[in-house]
Amino acid sequence: MHIGIMMFSTDQTVQPAPLARLIEERGFEAMFLPEHSHIPATRTTPYPRGGELPPEYYRTHDMFVGLAAAATAAPRLTIGTGITVVPQHDPIYLAKLVASLDHVAEGRLVFGMGFGWNADEIEDHGVVFKERREVAREKMLAIRRLWTEELASFEGKYVNFGPSYMWPKPVQRPGPPVVIGGAAGPKLFRHIAEYADGWAPIGPRTIMEGLPDLRRAFEDAGRDPAAIRLHAFDHRSEPSLVEHYANLGVERLVINIAPLRQGELERTLDELAPLVDLVA
């Protein structure tokens, strides 16, 4: 199992390029960055962890800019989006962004995506919150065409464009691995089985309880359940928990750490570094 690190890199913390170098120097395999475009001041959506929304949610760098800097600064690292809120992106631009980043990273990109939890943020992008899953579905189906077809077009309820050229195509064919974040459920599993490569949940119990249903969803879609790619995100890092993830067949565990300045970050990464050898 690979181990990666995810941190909100903001204007008040270590920047993406030096963050990537610090992660790479300690033997971690990957670096992921989260995404939020902005946070409306009149936000009514409660913070999922309770209490006030931390400032890093509205101070974070653009995820794609940060990952491009990381890929250049640390050329051995896998980089990943953790996660791209697909409903609030233009699908044509997003297809080009991801494909271009896959080139910058020389095929070392994991495309983590999701539907978003902050209704206020998503609706500022012109998306009805209750429709976000279907919006994301159409956008991803369109993106897949742009990645794989020389002359791509799409006609749907939310996405429409005529025959078009879009290059570069991703280095990884038919595209970088797409893993969808979210809690177990039949709707999520249908989405994964239709247009993604794997699942990125939080917590080993979620994986244990949900994986049988995800496998059935793959079978129903005519896909091989053995091809499911499991990622996991977790802020916990106890060695026994890390070993548990490895035993469940998780391909990559991404440990979420608090947004930190240089000294604190180095100490935190030094404390986590022995986990790399634990699952090597």
From TrEMBL:
Keyword Flavoprotein: yes
A single BP term in Gene Ontology: alkanesulfonate catabolic process
Transmembrane regions listed in the UniProt entry: none
GO MF term set: alkanesulfonate monooxygenase activity
Domain Luciferase-like: 19-230
Annotated Pfam families: Bac_luciferase
Stored CDD domains: Tetrahydromethanopterin_reductase (cd01097)
InterPro entries membership: Lucif-like_OxRdtase_Rv2161c, Luciferase-like_dom, Luciferase-like_sf, SsuD_RutA_monooxygenase
Keywords: Flavoprotein, FMN, Monooxygenase, Oxidoreductase
Name of the molecule in the record: Probable F420-dependent oxidoreductase, Rv2161c family
Biological source species: Thermomonospora echinospora
